[in-house]
From TrEMBL:
Record protein name field: PH domain-containing protein
Domain of life: Bacteria
Stretches assigned to coiled coil: none
Domain Bacterial Pleckstrin homology residues, every copy: 2-123
Organism per entry: Halobacillus aidingensis
PANTHER family, A to Z: BHLH DOMAIN-CONTAINING PROTEIN, HYPOTHETICAL CYTOSOLIC PROTEIN
InterPro entries assigned to the protein according to its UniProt record, in alphabetical order: PHb (IPR012544), PHb_sf (IPR037063)
Length: 124
């Protein structure tokens, strides 16, 4: 992922093996990472049990907030694919008890269909 893509909010896929090592103390026994995406320093990770949002804070990024969302809390989601003039795809996820969705932008070549399939697998 290029620096400009991160500044523009575009997400890119992360290496599952690397993120598994980073989340060793966060994941529960038997929990497996399915896929993950990164926007600058922040990530959102799909496991077989939950959606995990990772927010690295501060100048060094050593302070980290881990936000766990059980799939049963996701009320609905939408995926908008890239078009001829709109070069980004967009993912929106609504959580029960909130009015505003969690939104992430993906580059045109990003695997937005895989994200939709992962959500559909665990939410529907």
């Amino acid at each position: 992922m290029g620096f400009l893509d991160g500044l523009m909010g575009n997400a890119s896929q992360v290496d599952v093996d690397k993120i598994e090592r980073e989340l060793e103390g966060i994941l529960i026994e038997g929990e497996n990472i399915q896929s993950g995406y990164k926007v600058l320093r922040d990530s959102f990770i799909f496991t077989d049990r939950r959606l995990l949002l990772i927010d690295k804070q501060g100048m060094t990024g050593k302070k980290v907030e881990y936000h766990s969302i059980p799939y049963k809390s996701i009320t609905h989601f939408s995926v908008e694919t890239a078009g001829s003039f709109d070069l980004d795809s967009e993912l929106k996820i609504w959580i029960s008890g909130t009015n505003e969705p969690i939104g992430k932008l993906f580059k045109k070549d990003s695997p937005i269909e895989e994200v939709q399939q992962t959500l559909a697998t665990y939410v529907l």
